[in-house]
């Protein structure tokens, strides 16, 4: 770890120096932490000078203004939160010493960091993964994995919903929040978050993959073993319901075998389902229902993914976007 170099800054007032000595001697903070605290206090002193106030006369409104300035200057929410933590520690100590009537930083919070966009595959990569057929693979495993991928991408299932699917509905499955597949009607019935049930259409590709898997599902166990199988749609080698961890592992291996540069996980296929459906239809409400989101706000994140797709198309195709500036 590189040492932190303290650049020459505003001279710290006596109360700030006393606090740093308290942090060094009584709190026994590490040298790196003390350096960061010193930088934070120098920054605060500079801000205070900008509003013609001594350090101990600052109020919450000033602190919020400083936060807004840092944020506008490009500092991240996490970075601002760390600075506020240092300032808060100083004013907590100052209040205990009777130097200030209250801590002006106490209720000031850093701006929330923007939530990262969910990762989704491009359409070509998603199709390549779904159509990938591993060479020299066990036909039983290949059929099972192909059906799992088609349901994850074709229906937007969560991994918990996928592994919870049964062959047929039953009162026990219903009470435990497990869904089932109605292949004749080409529908998947699942119980999502909050035990909220939803029905999803099963596309032709997924229906074919499921029919192929069901034809092989009991084959390795023989007639006697088949009678003792778990009622789950997807099984492991021992005849028990497959686990979410196994789905993650098999999907990662399949994406590598398909030549994708990004290791794929189950929720990435759910994101891909939503993003690609929204790109084609533009129907946000329909996507919300298919995903089982209680709030449209949750689904709206995919409009940002859709805009990224449109912006990329524009950058690559529009003549004015591709025109180089004159030197």
Automatic annotation (TrEMBL):
Principal location listed in the UniProt entry: cytoplasm
Which Pfam families is this protein grouped with? Phage_int_SAM_1, Phage_integrase
Span of domain Core-binding (CB): 10-95
- State the superkingdom: Bacteria
**Domain Tyr recombinase span(s) in chain numbering:** 116-315
Indicate the residues that form the catalytic site: 158, 193, 267, 270, 293, 302 (o-(3'-phospho-dna)-tyrosine intermediate)
Report if keyword Membrane is assigned: no
Which keywords fit this entry according to its UniProt record?
Answer: Cell cycle, Cell division, Chromosome partition, Cytoplasm, DNA integration, DNA recombination, DNA-binding
InterPro entries reported in the protein's UniProt record: CB, DNA_brk_join_enz, Integrase-like_cat_sf, Integrase_catalytic, Integrase_recombinase_N, Integrase_SAM-like_N, Tyrosine_recombinase_XerC/XerD, Tyrosine_recombinase_XerCD
Tell me if Cell cycle is a UniProt keyword of this record: yes
> Which N-terminal residues, if any, form the signal peptide?
none
Q: Where in the cell is it found?
A: Cytoplasm
| Similarity comment text for this entry | Belongs to the 'phage' integrase family. XerC subfamily.
**Quaternary assembly:** Forms a cyclic heterotetrameric complex composed of two molecules of XerC and two molecules of XerD.
Function of the molecule? Site-specific tyrosine recombinase, which acts by catalyzing the cutting and rejoining of the recombining DNA molecules. The XerC-XerD complex is essential to convert dimers of the bacterial chromosome into monomers to permit their segregation at cell division. It also contributes to the segregational stability of plasmids.
Q: What is this protein called?
A: Tyrosine recombinase XerC
Q: Which organism is it from?
A: Diaphorobacter limosus
- What is the taxonomic lineage of the source species? Bacteria, Pseudomonadati, Pseudomonadota, Betaproteobacteria, Burkholderiales
What is the name of the gene encoding this protein? xerC
